[in-house]
């Protein structure tokens, strides 16, 4: 239950991203600076945390031997995740981006066959290719149905071209984030704690953000003071707090694709938090009765997803004991 609670808390802080990214776009800020400034601001905060825990040297040693892999998977997990999310804010409101982002629930589950998991057998530890958790996937579809239902009225008021332009970057991000996160968990193999891994991925993704910011400087000029301030808030809330909470939750269930899918499913709560945040800060319309029904469906889907993932783990262990 603890990983689920950490995931929900992470969703709260992640939702600030969608609200402020849309706010910056509406005030004339460039998506390029919204994306790159967040990761530049994350570095000093994470450095303070890791250095104070006396773990910075161990991180450098771990990165030194596998620098190429760190750069590749960090760029995918952070760069190809957040840059498209910020790009989507140019074309879509925060609630639509947050809703579209929930496809990561499906994306994460569909990535399972690309990873190997360790299982304990009578003859020792054995690595097997992950399988798509179809039971949990069904609950993920229920969650997505609730999200679509919650946004049905607003979605009908937006042009199809705008919807597609806003959704396609989010779909790319939905695969990039769990792929980069899981590959980095495999690469670290439990040798680094959450703070070290987030700092390492942030540092390793800096070449991508530097190149993007140079392009932004050339095409958009310097960011405004307002965008710098809001990017700082996003960096602290989403970049540091939410990312650490989410990675800690995924670390707790590392190696179990069903539980990992359940943790990733908690990110559906971002939609609820984003709706509330936009109502308060961006004067968005109050959700209709249909939207509230959608929220309830999301909650039910999360509970069932968590229950089936726990039950599936027990059945899986029983089968392993008998057959292996």
How would you portray this structure in words?
With 324 residues, this protein is mainly α. The chain has one domain (2-310). Helix content is 79%, strand content 4%. Helix 2 (31-52) crosses helix 4 (67-88), helix 7 (134-150) packs parallel to helix 12 and helix 12 (257-265) packs antiparallel against helix 14. The protein is globular. 52% of the residues are buried. The chain crosses the membrane at residues 31-50, 70-91, 97-120, 132-152, 158-177, 198-218, 230-249, 261-283, 289-308. InterPro entries: EmrE. It holds the Pfam family EmrE.
Short précis:
The protein has 324 residues and is mainly alpha-helical.
The dominant shape is globular
Percent range for β-strand residues: under 5%
Terminal Cα span: 29 Å
Total domains, how many? 1
How would a crystallographer describe the biggest sheet? Answer: 2 strands, antiparallel
| Oligomerization | single chain
**Number of extended strands:** 2
Tally of separate helices: 14
List the uncertain runs: 313-324
Radius of gyration: 20 Å
Average residue-wise pLDDT = 81
Structural class: mainly alpha
Secondary-structure element string: HHHHHHEEHHHHHHHH
**What strand order characterises the main sheet?**
1-2
> Approximately how much helix is present in the residues?
over 70%
Keywords: Membrane, Transmembrane, Transmembrane helix
Protein name: Multidrug resistance efflux transporter family protein
InterPro entries: EmrE
Organism: Gottfriedia luciferensis
């Amino acid at each position: 239950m603890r990983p689920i609670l950490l995931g929900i808390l992470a969703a709260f802080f992640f939702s600030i991203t969608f609200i402020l990214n849309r706010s910056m776009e509406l005030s004339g800020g460039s998506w390029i600076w919204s994306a790159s400034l967040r990761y530049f601001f994350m570095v000093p905060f994470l450095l303070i945390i890791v250095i104070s825990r006396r773990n910075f040297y161990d991180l450098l040693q771990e990165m030194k031997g596998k620098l190429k892999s760190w750069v590749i998977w960090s760029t995918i997990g952070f760069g190809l995740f957040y840059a498209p999310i910020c790009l989507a804010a140019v074309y879509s409101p925060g609630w639509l981006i947050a809703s579209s982002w929930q496809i990561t629930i499906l994306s994460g589950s569909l990535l399972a066959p690309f990873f190997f998991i360790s299982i304990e057998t009578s003859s020792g530890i054995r690595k097997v290719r992950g399988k798509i958790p179809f039971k949990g996937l069904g609950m993920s579809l229920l969650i997505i149905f609730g999200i679509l239902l919650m946004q049905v009225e607003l979605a009908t008021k937006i042009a199809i071209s705008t919807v597609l332009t806003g959704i396609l970057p989010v779909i790319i991000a939905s695969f990039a984030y769990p792929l980069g996160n899981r590959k980095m968990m495999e690469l670290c193999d439990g040798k680094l704690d959450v703070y070290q891994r987030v700092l390492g991925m942030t540092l390793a993704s800096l070449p991508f953000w530097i190149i993007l910011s140079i392009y932004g400087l050339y095409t958009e000029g310097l960011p405004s003071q307002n965008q710098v301030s809001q990017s700082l808030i996003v960096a602290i809330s989403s970049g540091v707090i939410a990312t650490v909470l989410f990675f800690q939750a995924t670390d707790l269930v590392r190696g179990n694709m069903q539980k990992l899918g359940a943790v990733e499913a908690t990110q559906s709560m971002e939609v609820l938090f984003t709706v509330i945040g936009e109502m308060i800060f961006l004067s968005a319309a109050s959700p209709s009765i249909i939207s509230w029904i959608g929220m309830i469906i999301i909650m039910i889907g999360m509970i069932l997803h968590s229950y089936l993932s726990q039950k599936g783990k027990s059945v899986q262990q029983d089968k392993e004991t008998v057959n292996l």
